């Protein structure tokens, strides 16, 4: 061995790195192309989504956005030295015009151990008074687009002027009867994870007495200043038990299922609003009204940037990206709220759903597939997780 | 990140904000 080690001549030659890189790009492009498909209700009725837009969008689409997001999240979870925190967070706030005066630890920024911790900050109590309106903003941000959906039409929503996406692709479509191709597992929460709210207390929102009946859409308008609607008998002091989440393994939305919102009440319409949260904004989100979340659908999608620049160029942006569709009802019928992730904020947290994991490592499921959970045992009366206007629901965190 | 709201409401529902407007948590978005 010593002889061979000494005598064997060493020959140096350049490795064809470029060839390897090109090979990787070609393999990635072929993989992407095999995943691409048009957002059409293709013959079997399933919803699949295509990447459509200028060349910049395709370059972004070729990048490993989810891995980049996870690396970004990991770096921002690293604990920062105490001496750098105040300066660092002030610089971040200056760059992204975040208002430090209203955050929980505005007097001592060293309490935020990492940028991820600072990003997921809370505000001081009372910083955001809840208006007495039917619908309030669930987050700090900018209204990207809003309006009424022509529910007689093809159920497409305008993302911004001129670009639209399919509502069925955004929310997923109902699946067949129970048991068809899916497993339902009860995943009980630890006690204490959830706020215990007495049904009675819950029914008194913003000083307006809602009877449960009115709240969940079986009655008329809220009984202002009048006694709660006695017709809704509820066990005195009944509290809402911890939500236990019945996990349903998602299957590709199948043939001919009804949309999540197909039966609108007479005289009702379908409305939408899109709110964009900038990097410097407060990133926890709150309940926009008094409603009951019955189920959630997690779509493990891409993580394109959702900036207004991108929203104006990439059609189907909101049905391509990782998102969690929370579906339920309020007193006027169907209600849903869909937090959509982005490259820097790939993680979506829901306070009453510990089982949810977004932006996880591993192979992305085919576009349009979702994992569904139903909040069946959160409240025996409401059959879902009840929320009051302004109640904190969760938030977006880095990575 | 982005939050999309899709909901059913009586035809008389109207938004009290416009596209492009900055909003804060709890600010009125619309009413009947």
Q: Given the C-alpha coordinates, what overall shape of chain A results? A: globular
Q: How many DSSP helices of chain B?
A: 0
In terms of DSSP E residues, the strand content of chain A is 15-25%
Number of helices of chain A: 11
Strands ordered across the widest β-sheet of chain B: 2-4
Mean pLDDT of chain B: 94
Shape designation of chain B: globular
Q: Largest sheet of chain A, if any?
A: 7 strands, antiparallel
Order of helices and strands of chain B: EEEE
Unreliable residue stretches of chain B: none
Structural class of chain A: alpha+beta
Biggest protein-protein interface? A-B, 64 and 30 residues
Order of helices and strands of chain A: HHHHHHEEEEHEHEEHEEEEHHEEEEEE
Cα gyration radius of chain A (Å) = 24 Å
Mean pLDDT level of chain A = 71
Distance from first to last alpha carbon of chain B: 28 Å
Would you mind describing this structure in some detail?
The complex is a heterodimer of chains A (399) and B (32). The model of chain A is unreliable at 37-46 and 175-258 (pLDDT under 50). Chain A has 399 residues and is an alpha+beta fold. In chain A, 21% of the residues lie in helices and 22% in strands. In chain A, strands 5, 8, 11, 12, 13, 15 and 16 form a 7-stranded antiparallel beta sheet that branches. Chain B is mainly beta and 32 residues long. Chain B has no helices and 4 strands. Chain B has strands at 2-10, 14-15, 22-23, 28-31. In chain B, strands 2-4 form a two-stranded antiparallel ribbon. Chain B is globular. The interface between A and B is large, with 64 and 30 residues. Strand 2 of chain A pairs antiparallel with strand 3 (22-23) of chain B, so a sheet runs across the interface.
């Amino acid at each position: 061995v010593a002889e061979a080690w000494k005598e064997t001549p060493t020959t140096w030659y350049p490795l064809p790195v470029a060839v390897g890189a090109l090979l990787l790009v070609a393999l990635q492009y072929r993989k992407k192309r095999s995943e691409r498909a048009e957002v059409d209700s293709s013959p079997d009725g399933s919803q699949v989504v295509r990447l459509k837009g200028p060349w910049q969008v395709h370059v972004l689409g070729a990048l490993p956005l989810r891995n980049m997001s996870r690396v970004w999240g990991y770096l921002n979870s690293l604990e920062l030295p105490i001496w750098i925190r105040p300066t660092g967070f002030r610089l971040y706030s200056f760059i992204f015009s975040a208002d430090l005066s209203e955050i929980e630890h505005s007097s001592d920024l060293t309490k935020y151990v990492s940028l991820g911790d600072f990003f997921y900050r809370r505000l001081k109590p009372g910083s955001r008074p809840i208006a007495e309106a039917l619908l309030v903003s669930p987050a700090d941000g900018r209204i990207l687009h809003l309006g009424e959906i022509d529910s007689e039409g093809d159920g497409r929503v305008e993302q911004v002027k001129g670009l639209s996406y399919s509502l069925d692709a955004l929310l997923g479509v109902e699946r067949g009867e129970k048991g068809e191709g899916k497993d339902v597992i009860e995943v009980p929460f630890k006690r204490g994870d959830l706020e215990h709210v007495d049904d009675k207390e819950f029914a008194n929102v913003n000083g307006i007495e809602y009877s449960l009946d009115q709240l969940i859409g079986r009655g008329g308008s809220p009984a202002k200043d009048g006694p709660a609607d006695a017709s809704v008998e509820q066990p005195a002091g009944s509290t809402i038990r911890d939500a236990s989440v019945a996990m349903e393994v998602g299957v590709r939305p199948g043939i001919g299922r009804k949309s999540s919102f197909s039966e609108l009440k007479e005289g009702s319409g379908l409305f939408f609003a899109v709110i964009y949260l900038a990097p410097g904004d407060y990133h926890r989100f709150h309940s926009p009204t008094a409603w009951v979340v019955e189920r959630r659908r997690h779509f493990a999608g891409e993580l394109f940037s959702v900036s207004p620049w991108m929203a104006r160029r990439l059609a189907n942006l909101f049905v391509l990206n990782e998102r969690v569709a929370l579906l339920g009802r309020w007193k006027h019928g169907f209600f849903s709220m869909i937090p959509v992730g982005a490259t820097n904020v790939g993680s979506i947290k829901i306070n009453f759903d510990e089982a949810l994991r977004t932006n996880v490592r591993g192979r992305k499921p085919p576009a349009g597939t979702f994992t569904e959970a139903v909040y069946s045992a959160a409240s025996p009366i409401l059959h879902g997780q009840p929320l009051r206007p302004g109640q904190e629901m969760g938030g977006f965190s880095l990575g | 990140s982005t939050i999309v709201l899709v909901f059913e409401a009586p035809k008389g529902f109207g938004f009290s904000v416009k596209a492009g407007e900055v909003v804060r948590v709890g600010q009125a978005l619309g009413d009947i």
